[in-house]
Every structure is written in structure tokens, then in C-alpha cells.
């Protein structure tokens, strides 16, 4: 899962859970059935788990573009500049 | 969110938080409704016997006709209602004597309006011989048990009952 996919997964999870909670409450209240509310919400949680937990292909649409290894030779890692004088504690 | 474990953990914790929120809202939803108060009517059909025990305590046996209507107490968040009938009277020694003489559990709204003809389920005995000619109240108490939220209780006091003046 790439960076964009992780963001999408989190947003999907929050939106879906909240939406199912609202639907479950309204349906339960409307039907006068507490059990119906819990069943709808449980179904919503199961669906959300199914959508956001596995690493689905649509979470991998923005792969990171790493530089080619040959770039390393052309741009050598800058070496830390060695200081000529050592920092001394007493002056 | 980079691994299965983190995503599963996220779903679990958020879903449980929302579930707690749902239950809170559900428990509040019943309070908002302004339903008519329940009603009850109790009639003492017959006094079967009334005697003084050898211990000196009065005891009476009543036949009661109890007809409450508790339908308005049921909301979608009500699990059941416990209801009991108490005889309440005042004696020189105690300002309030409460004797539970009948009780029942109402599991659904279909059974919240009923009429029952019964003798007192529990013994109506006094701690002494104060019952002769005593005026008493019959009070229907109820405890509403919700699925989630706070349990609450209320009562209806019915006045104007009187014990017989002589033992029978």
C-alpha cells in the first residue's frame, strides 16, 4: 500500500463507519428495533473491514518513484567536511 | 495504516468508539419523547380473611383486580419493566410501612396493558396489630430497565382503601 493508498484507507474507514452508524441509528429508531440497529452496524463494520484492511489494488495506484541505481554513481554521496581543528574544551 | 495489523486495529477501535456513541444516543433518545404518563387501577374485590396470629401480628388476605396500562413506558430502548404493588400505611410507630403484595415482569409492549384478578402474591402482614380499620394506599411502583442507559423508577399512588374493622 502506497502513501496515497494509506490516506485513502483511513478516510474510507472513518467515512464508512460513521455513515453506517447514522444509517443504523435511523433505521433502528424508525423500526423501533434496537436489534436492527446493532445488526446494521455490525454489517457495516464487517464491510468496512473487508474494504479497508486487505491490500486492494486500488490502494496502490501511486507507487513511489525511486531513483535509478545508476544515479548513485553520477551524484556521489557528499562526504562530511572534516574540520581542520578539533574543538577544544579549554581555551 | 501501512500494515494489515494497523488497519484492523484502526477499524476495531473506531468502530467500538462509535458503538459506544450509538448506545449513548439511543439511551438519550427515549428521554426526549414526551409520552402520556401510564395509568393504573386497582380494586380490592374481596377480603378473604383477616386475622390476628398467635404472635400478635395482623394478617389479611385480599383478592385484587389490577389493571395497569404501562404501554407509554416502552420505547425502542426498553428491555423490560419490573412492576410491583405495595400496600402503604401509617402506624403510630412507623410513618411509612410498605408491604409488597404483588409483582410482575413485563417483557414487551404487547403485555403492558392487562387486567389480572389475583389474591395477594406475598403475605400482607403487619409487625403488630395495627391493621384493623387502617386506611392504606395501594402504590404501583415500576422500574424501567433500558437496553442501554440509566434505569429509572416511578410510581402511582392510589388512595382511599381501608382495612375491615373486625377480624373475619
TrEMBL record, chain A:
Q: Do you know which Pfam families this protein is assigned to?
A: SPC12
Q: How does it sit in the membrane?
A: Multi-pass membrane protein
Keyword Transmembrane helix part of the UniProt annotation? yes
Where in or outside the cell it occurs: the entry states: Endoplasmic reticulum membrane
- Please note every region of biased composition (Basic residues): 82-91
Listed transmembrane segments: 12-32, 38-59
An example Gene Ontology biological process: protein targeting to ER
Name the UniProt key words of this record, in alphabetical order. Answer: Endoplasmic reticulum, Membrane, Transmembrane, Transmembrane helix
Q: Report the principal subcellular site.
A: endoplasmic reticulum
This entry carries the following GO cellular component terms, namely:
signal peptidase complex
Disordered: region residues: 68-91
Asked whether the keyword Methyltransferase is assigned, the reply is: no
Lineage, top-rank taxon, reads: Eukaryota
UniProt family annotation = Belongs to the SPCS1 family.
What the protein does comes down to:
Component of the signal peptidase complex (SPC) which catalyzes the cleavage of N-terminal signal sequences from nascent proteins as they are translocated into the lumen of the endoplasmic reticulum. Dispensable for SPC enzymatic activity.
This chain belongs to the protein called Signal peptidase complex subunit 1
TrEMBL record, chain B:
Topology of this chain in the membrane: Single-pass type II membrane protein
- Statement: the UniProt record of this protein carries the keyword Transmembrane: yes
Instruction: Look up the signal peptide feature and give its range.
Output: 1-30
Give any single GO term for biological process.
Answer: signal peptide processing
**CC terms in the record's Gene Ontology section:** signal peptidase complex
Q: What is its main location?
A: endoplasmic reticulum
Q: Which UniProt keywords apply?
A: Endoplasmic reticulum, Membrane, Signal, Signal-anchor, Transmembrane, Transmembrane helix
Q: Where in the cell? A: Endoplasmic reticulum membrane
Keyword set includes rRNA-binding: no
The lineage's top-level taxon is Eukaryota
Task: Tell me, in a sentence or two, what this protein's role is.
Answer: Essential component of the signal peptidase complex (SPC) which catalyzes the cleavage of N-terminal signal sequences from nascent proteins as they are translocated into the lumen of the endoplasmic reticulum. Essential for the SPC catalytic activity, possibly by stabilizing and positioning the active center of the complex close to the lumenal surface.
Family under the similarity heading: Belongs to the SPCS3 family.
**What is the official name of this protein in its record?**
Signal peptidase complex subunit 3
Amino acid at each position: 500500500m502506497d502513501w496515497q493508498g494509506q490516506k485513502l484507507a483511513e478516510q474510507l474507514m472513518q467515512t464508512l463507519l460513521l455513515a453506517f452508524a447514522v444509517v443504523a441509528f435511523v433505521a433502528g429508531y424508525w423500526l423501533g428495533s434496537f436489534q436492527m440497529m446493532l445488526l446494521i452496524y455490525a454489517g457495516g463494520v464487517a464491510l468496512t473491514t473487508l474494504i479497508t484492511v486487505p491490500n486492494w489494488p486500488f490502494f496502490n495506484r501511486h507507487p513511489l518513484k525511486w531513483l535509478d541505481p545508476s544515479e548513485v554513481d553520477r551524484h556521489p554521496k557528499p562526504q562530511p567536511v572534516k574540520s581542520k581543528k578539533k574543538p577544544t574544551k579549554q581555551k | 495504516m501501512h500494515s494489515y495489523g494497523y488497519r484492523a486495529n484502526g477499524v476495531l477501535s473506531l468502530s467500538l468508539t462509535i458503538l459506544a456513541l450509538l448506545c449513548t444516543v439511543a439511551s438519550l433518545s427515549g428521554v426526549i419523547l414526551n409520552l402520556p404518563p401510564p395509568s393504573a387501577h386497582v380494586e380490592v374485590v374481596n377480603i378473604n380473611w383477616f386475622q390476628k396470629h398467635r404472635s400478635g401480628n395482623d394478617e389479611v388476605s385480599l383478592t385484587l383486580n389490577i389493571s395497569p396500562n404501562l404501554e407509554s413506558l416502552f420505547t425502542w430502548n426498553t428491555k423490560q419493566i419490573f412492576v410491583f404493588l405495595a400496600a402503604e400505611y401509617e402506624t403510630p410507630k412507623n410513618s411509612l410501612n410498605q408491604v409488597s403484595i404483588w409483582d410482575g415482569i413485563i417483557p414487551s409492549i404487547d403485555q403492558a396493558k392487562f387486567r389480572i384478578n389475583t389474591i395477594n402474591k406475598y403475605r400482607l402482614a403487619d409487625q403488630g396489630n395495627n391493621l384493623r380499620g387502617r386506611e392504606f394506599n395501594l402504590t404501583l411502583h415500576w422500574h424501567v430497565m433500558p437496553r442501554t442507559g440509566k434505569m429509572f423508577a416511578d410510581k402511582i399512588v392510589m388512595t382511599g382503601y381501608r382495612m375491615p374493622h373486625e377480624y373475619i
